Amino acid sequence: MSIPSLPTYTMPDAPVDNRAHWAPDARRAALLIHDMQDYFLGKYDVAQAPIPALITAITRLRARCDALGIPVFYTAQPPVQPAADRALLNDFWGPGLTAPGQQAQAGIVAALSPRPHDTVLTKWRYSAFQRSDLRARLAGLGRDQLLITGVYAHIGCLSTALDAFMQDVQPFLLIDACADFSLADHQMAIRHVAQRCGMSLTTAETLAALEHSGQQAAAQEIHA
Q1: Is the pTM of this model over 0.70?
Q2: Mind listing the pLDDT tens digit for each residue in 67-104?
Q3: For a FRET experiment, which of 162, 166, 168, 209 has its CA 20 to 30 Å from that of 134?
Q4: What is the CATH number of the domain that holds 203?
Q5: Which of 10, 2, 1, 61 is nearest to 180 (CA)?
Q6: Is residue 23 part of a domain?
């Protein structure tokens, strides 16, 4: 019932056809680092693909977001979840990281440890928007785009993208800054977002778009 050991697979990193034609904008975007907790990464051999590429891509994105003033959000499941709070998750995944001996793995992976200026949201359901104030926080910051990274692509990342779309926030699933149960599941999430609720972009595409929008913003300030 718990998450099984997950296979090694080569991280997808090719651009895809998207139904929408949005572009990430440094003035509108926020970065979400989704569920990058030791417990979830521990289901992989972290020395093998896709995990090193995953951490490298998210690290690059976070650094560029810092430079451009883009806010960074994290989600993390709490190590203690009363039965009424965990609810139906128990039926699919058992106690998860709340099981005896697992609570010590609740922390974010060390390479991506949150900084004091980052926001860490408590994660109760697949979507980062459920039982959190993420939507209100984004609105308060004037942000209506969400760059989604982390694990697992076809579960929480996809659910968050769908929820964002239904709340008028443009979601971008970062193709090579997510990981999943398998390559097939990963590709399914990429296709679904690209065709139904957002855009699936590579890290390179996203960084280029953010850089371009950042240059536009700087030029506008000079001429203001």
Answers
A1: yes
A2: 999 999 999 999 999 988 999 999 999 999 999 888 89
A3: 209
A4: 3.40.50.850
A5: 10
A6: no
